[in-house]
Specification:
Elements (H helix, E strand, L loop, with lengths): L9 H30 L4 H19 L3 H15 L3 H24 L1 H12 L3 H14 L3 H16 L4 H24 L4 H29 L6 H5 L5 H30 L2 H37 L3 H37 L3 H33 L3 H22 L5 H32 L1
Helix pairs in contact: 1-2, 1-8, 1-12, 1-13, 2-6, 2-11, 2-12, 3-4, 3-7, 3-11, 3-12, 4-7, 6-9, 7-9, 8-9, 11-12, 11-15, 11-16, 12-13, 12-14, 13-14, 14-16, 15-16
């Protein structure tokens, strides 16, 4: 079988990975701009407020990222099996769930905010600004969650260009509005929040327009009975529940880092926000190849092509390590310069530079879990993803942090680094077992 020349070739991988890398890099770029516009207002607490507010929404919104991941895997498998009607039904089910969850988040916004602020324990001035940010941005929930479902479905249908257009519109508009509403109009943190809300709804509008073209290429009919019967959502709920708790665990780790930074003071909180943006830049870039792995492994699995499945894993892993090595070099050579672009507050820049070595070594440690996340999503093996994530958090991150509290912020980054290494190792062991069984079958 000439795998190198078929639908699972390196060219096929990069046809999906390249647009998703470009769109993915724009997400932390938005974080850079959010942090930068606050970082040039003269007081570190503005940066702390954006970091705290962004962390809350990272947990709330990214915690719902199962809507994208679950939709991608199921849509890709339906495409591989030649069932266009099933693919449409998956999209409709995911969209209904997205709308239901967004309404719930809006209704529960007050207790959610109060609990979040108690956990973060931010200084009083940071808390006041964070409340203002949250009360505005929560209204982006319906658009944000619908966008997750739509982007996931497009990826499952092997279409990465449309998600690129959607995500680039959202983030470029958000960045433009940041620059207009904060430095120019003087709206401060409210401007950052409104920029996010407007951009998300603009992205949804574009996604709906482009959806019509994709549906025309894949003829089929939605099973209306499956949309009305709760029992028909069983598989979707099963996959999504595991992905939800897996993602929430990861988001809580990131929130824990922010919360501990707040306890160390506004300066450490601001510096950690800068460094987490660099980590997110890495993760979104590597996620481009993970998205390719999701779409292609799901398609290979749905069409029962085991040889292609193993090829996808091998080639995506090769390219992921290559990109990770490039990031190590860039962060080693230009890390301090990048930090200087994000903020002109001298104390924050010095503090971030002190902990920068953790980010320099992160790419080659983190790359494994990013890639295997994509493979497991494509195979809809969400249970294993949850087990590895929870085990790494409970058995590695928390013990390492507890034993290294005397190291202060260095202990926090040591715990995070060990956590990422444990995830990669655990998922590698699970993947070997899963692929061995697939080969036997």
């Amino acid at each position: 079988m000439q795998i190198g020349h078929n639908a699972y070739s390196d060219r096929a991988i990069w046809r999906i990975a390249t647009p998703m890398m470009l769109s993915g890099v724009s997400v932390p770029l938005l974080g850079f701009v959010d942090t930068a516009v606050m970082g040039h207002l003269g007081d570190a607490y503005w940066m702390g407020a954006v970091a705290a507010g962004a962390t809350i929404f990272t947990v709330l919104f990214m915690g719902m990222n199962f809507l994208r991941m679950g939709t991608t895997g199921l849509a890709a498998q339906a495409l591989g099996a030649g069932k266009a009607g099933l693919a449409r039904t998956v999209l409709a089910q995911s969209s209904i769930i997205a709308l239901a969850i967004s309404v719930l988040l809006i209704l529960l916004q007050v207790p959610l905010l109060n609990i979040s602020l108690q956990l973060i324990a931010a200084p009083p001035d940071v808390e006041i600004a964070t409340r203002e940010y949250f009360s505005i941005r929560i209204w982006a929930a319906p658009a944000t969650l619908i966008n997750y479902a739509l982007v996931g479905w497009f990826l499952g249908m092997q279409n990465a260009r449309t998600p690129l257009a959607i995500i680039l519109l959202i983030n470029s508009l958000n960045i433009t509005l940041d620059l207009l509403l904060v430095p120019v109009s003087g709206w401060q943190i409210a401007g950052v929040a409104w920029a996010s809300v407007i951009a998300e709804y603009a992205g949804t509008a574009l996604a709906i327009v482009l959806l019509q073209r994709e549906l025309a290429e894949h003829k089929g009919r939605i099973n209306l009975r499956e949309l009305c019967q709760l029992s028909r959502y069983r598989r979707l709920f099963s996959i999504n529940a595991n992905l939800f708790f897996r993602t929430i665990t990861l988001m809580l780790i990131l929130a824990f880092i922010t919360a501990q930074g707040a306890r160390y003071g506004a300066l450490i909180l601001a510096a950690n926000a800068v460094l987490l943006n660099l980590q997110l830049l890495l993760s979104y870039a590597l996620d481009g190849l993970a998205h390719a792995a999701e779409a292609l492994s799901g398609k290979a699995f749905g069409s029962h092509d085991r040889t292609a499945l193993r090829w996808v894993v091998k080639r995506c892993l090769y390219w992921s390590v290559f990109i990770a090595a490039i990031f190590c070099g860039v962060y080693a050579l230009l890390g301090e310069a990048i930090v200087g672009v994000i903020t002109n507050i001298h104390e924050v820049r010095l503090t971030a530079a002190e902990y920068l070595p953790w980010i320099i070594i992160s790419p080659l440690i983190s790359v494994w879990c990013f890639l295997y996340d994509g493979i497991f999503v494509g195979l809809t093996r969400s249970r294993e993803m949850l087990i590895v994530m929870a085990g790494s958090a409970l058995l590695v991150f928390l013990p390492v942090w507890y034993l290294s509290t005397n190291l202060g912020n260095n202990g926090l980054w040591l715990a995070f680094t060990c956590f990422m290494a444990a995830r990669g190792m655990g998922m590698h062991l699970c993947a070997k077992r899963i692929l061995a069984v697939a080969e036997v079958r």
